[in-house]
Known about the structure:
Blueprint: H1 6-15, H2 20-29, H3 40-49, E1 55-57, E2 61-64, H4 68-79, E3 84-88, E4 92-94, H5 99-104, E5 113-115, E6 122-125, E7 128-132, E8 135-138, E9 143-145, E10 149-151, E11 155-157, E12 169-170, H6 174-184, E13 189-193, H7 197-209, E14 214-219, H8 230-242, E15 246-249, E16 255-257, E17 260-263, E18 266-269, E19 271-274, E20 278-280, E21 309-311, H9 330-349, E22 363-366, E23 372-376, E24 379-380, H10 390-406
Parallel strand pairs: 1-9, 2-3, 2-10, 3-6, 10-21, 12-19, 13-14, 13-19, 14-15
Antiparallel strand pairs: 4-5, 7-8, 8-9, 11-20, 16-17, 17-18, 22-23, 23-24
Helix pairs in contact: 1-3, 2-3, 4-9
Amino acid sequence: MEREAAVPNTIERDLATWTKAELYARAQELEISGRSAMTKSELAAALAASPRKDDVDVDGVVIVGGGYAGVHAARAVMSAGHRATIVDPTGRHDFLTRLAAVAGGTAPRTDASAALTSFGDDVVIGSMSSVVDGAVTLADGRMLRSDAVIVTAGAVPTKPPIPGIEQAWPLRTADDALALRSRLDDTDRVVIIGGGATGVQLAGAIAVKHPETKVVLVEAADTLLAGMGRSVGADAERILRQRGVDVRLGAAVDAIDANGIDVGGAEIAGLPIWAAGFAARADGFGCPVGSSGRVDIDGYLRVSGWKRTFAAGDVAAHLDDRGDELAMSAQIAVQAGEVAGRNAVALLRGRPLERANLSHRGWVMDLGGWRGLAEFGPISLSAPFLDLLPPLLHWGIDVKHLIDTRGLGGLTDAPG
C-alpha cells in the first residue's frame, strides 16, 4: 500500500515526550547502529525514520471504538465483503441505552455489554493515543495503518470545576453500571446529579428495584429532560414522584463529597452519582477539532482535510440539514456509523462517496416498572396510560440494533 509521509511525523512528535533512556532502549530494541553516540534529539529522529517491529498494515478498515457508531460501521464494512478490525480498550460493546437499567437493577447484568468479537472480524485491545490520515497509534506504541480508518472514540463524562466531583460515581460504561449496581445493595440513600436522560432513567430504575432507598434527583434547570420539551419533562417528573423520588429543580451543585452534595449551602445526603452530561474526547488525538471539542468532518464524514480517515458518533461534529450541530446520541451514532462504513468501502473500491444525511428521528426512554417516555415528531407517548408503550418500543429498538449488527445471532444477547 502506498503511504503518505505524514505518518513518520506523528511518530516523531510522540517520541519528543520520551526520556533519553526510553529512546535509547527503543533504539537498542530496533538495533539502530551508532545509537551510543547519539543525542536525545538524534535518537528521536532515528527512531522516527526507522521501520518499527510493531507497526502493522491492516487489510480492510480499521475502526477505533466499539460503541454504537463503531459496531454499525463494522457491520457495513463486513456486509460489503471487507474486513473490519475494531480497536477498543475493553474489547466489549457497551449497551449505553441499557446501562441505567442495569445499574438500577431493573435489567439483568448481561444487558450491560457483549464481546466485540461478535461484531467484527478482528478485535485489537488498546487505546488510541493519536491518529493521522490512514494510521492510528495506540498508547502502547503500536501503529495500525490502513487505506481506510474510522474514528468513533466516543465521549466521556463532563467534569466541571465542582469541588469533589471525583467523589461522585460515574455512569458511562458497563463497568460503571455493574459497580454501581453492587454499591446500591449497600446504601439506603442516593443523590443523582443531572436530570437528563441518564439521570431520569436511573432514578426510575432505582425507585422500582429498591423502593426502600431514598432517591433524590437534582437538576440545575427548571425542568427535567430540558432538551425534550416541558410537557415531557413534566411527565417524567410525574412518574418519578409517583415512585417517591425527591425531584429538586433549579438546584445547582456547589460541592460533592463521598456522603452527598452541597446545594446553596444546604447538604443533601446520599451516595452521589454523576449523570450530568458527557463531552467529546477528541482533543489531543491530532485531528482537527472544532469549538465544541468534536472532530471537524466534511459532508462525507471524512476528517476535514484528510483522505483516508472518517469520524462518526459522539466524537464527530455531525450536522443536520440546516447546518446545526446534532446532539450526541445513540441514534445519530448508529446512522453515522453506517454511512462511515459504507464510505470506507467506497474509498477502498475507488467509488464515489455517499453524502451523510443524519437526523434526529425521535427518542424512547425506559423508566422501569413498565413506564417510559417516547416522542416521534408530533407524536408523544408520555401521558398516563400511553407511557406503558415506550418500554416495549425500547426493547424492540435494542433487538433491532443487535440484529442489524450481528444478524439473527445477535438475539442471544437480546435484553432480558
